[in-house]
Design brief:
The two termini are 26 Å apart. With 327 residues, the chain is of the alpha+beta class. The chain folds into 2 domains: 179 residues, 2-Layer Sandwich (Ribosomal Protein S5, domain 2), CATH 3.30.230; 132 residues, Alpha-Beta Plaits. It is built from 11 helices and 13 strands. The structure holds cytidine-5'-monophosphate.
């Protein structure tokens, strides 16, 4: 596979459309986990989850164009592209190869990812790119894969990839890939504090296990209760009640992320002091998420975070957002 990273000055959007006259672009959302209840470590190395995903309005764009040669050619633009793997392991490139293999054809495609979702930030940006690659390659190649089959391919690629296809809100069970769509009765206002540098998801899960072992509670499926969705949280989503949602937000990976990156405590405190209804680590972190009462409060919280120096930048957005969409 050819791979090349563009410079940071090649901004999202401009990069994706200018170079690909014959390309197909998919827009894919980031997510925050409003509930992330982590069960015990399973023999297959994964953890059973009760994982309530909410898609938020930060997007990557994945453009698939004819490569004119066999293989997957991958380019990336946007911030932090130096942290995006450009080798065989890139999840979007793997998605293109998996879809091609399923249809018995060559994966001859140039993929361009215009990144706006924080890289390795706990917002499933890599998973979103894989979902975008599935959708864009399917359209480019005219392979007309049924949506149910795209979701099955997505689940093979990673636990969070199916959700990026469907968006909105969903309960993820199993390792997160078994989705039940959830009703959302309103718009929620969020601020995301983006950190410098990422955290690796496997290392955060390992730290969660280590903390459980050292607390004496054990980390295996026999010692950790079966994870279940919170009825209060599902009600708060259904009624669009931000205060009630704030009261029920939980993330079992938060202690592990903070243990690996203690400075996150300051970030969380800064947003709470500026009036956020609730503060939590997004997924495996290190992005911190702040739920606010309205758009105005979101601006106040973002300004406080930006002024504090406790994050690289703070972004405001709303949820729910749609899943992967062809532009
Ligand atoms: O599924 P995905 O490839 O995104 O998972 C990355 C890693 O995160 C896994 O290899 C595993 O270490 C951890 N993980 C987990 N339990 C889950 C999901 C992910 O332990 N339910």
């Amino acid at each position: 596979m050819d791979a090349a990273a563009d410079t940071e000055t090649d901004t999202a959007g401009a990069g994706s459309t200018a170079r690909t006259a014959a390309g197909v672009t998919a827009r894919v959302p980031a997510k925050v986990n409003v509930q992330l209840t982590v069960g015990g470590l399973r023999p297959d190395g994964f953890h059973g989850l009760a994982n309530v995903f909410l898609a938020v309005g930060l997007y990557d764009e994945v453009t698939a164009s004819p490569a004119g040669a066999p293989g997957v050619k991958l380019t990336v633009s946007g911030r932090d592209t130096r942290h995006v793997p450009l080798d065989e392991g890139n999840l979007a490139a793997r998605a293109a190869r998996l879809l091609a293999e399923r249809h018995g054809r060559e994966p001859d495609v140039a993929l361009h990812i215009a990144k706006d979702i924080p890289v390795a930030g706990g917002m499933a940006g890599g998973s979103a790119d894989a979902a975008g690659a599935l959708l864009a390659c399917d359209a480019l190649w005219g392979t007309r894969t049924p949506h149910s089959e795209l979701r099955a391919l997505a689940a093979e690629l990673g636990s969070d990839v199916p959700f990026a296809l469907v968006g909105g809100a969903a309960l993820g069970q199993g390792r997160g890939e078994l989705l039940t769509p959830l009703e959302v009765g309103g718009t929620f206002h969020w601020v995301f504090a983006v950190a410098d540098g990422g955290l690796s998801t496997p290392s955060v899960y390992r730290e969660c296990d280590r903390l459980r072992e050292s607390a004496g509670t054990g980390a295996s499926v026999d010692s950790v209760p079966e994870p279940r969705p919170s009825p209060q949280l599902l009600d708060a989503l259904r009624t669009g009640d931000a205060a009630a949602l704030a009261d029920s937000l939980t993330n079992d990976l938060q202690a592990a992320a903070v243990s690996l990156r203690p400075s996150l405590t300051d970030t969380l405190k800064t947003g709470s002091s500026a009036g956020a209804l609730a503060a939590l680590v997004s997924g495996s972190g290190p992005t911190c998420a702040f739920l606010t009462a309205d758009a105005e409060s979101a601006q106040t919280v973002a300004a406080a975070l930006n002024a504090s120096g406790h994050c690289r930048t703070a972004r405001t957005t709303t949820a729910p957002a749609p899943g992967a969409t062809l532009l």
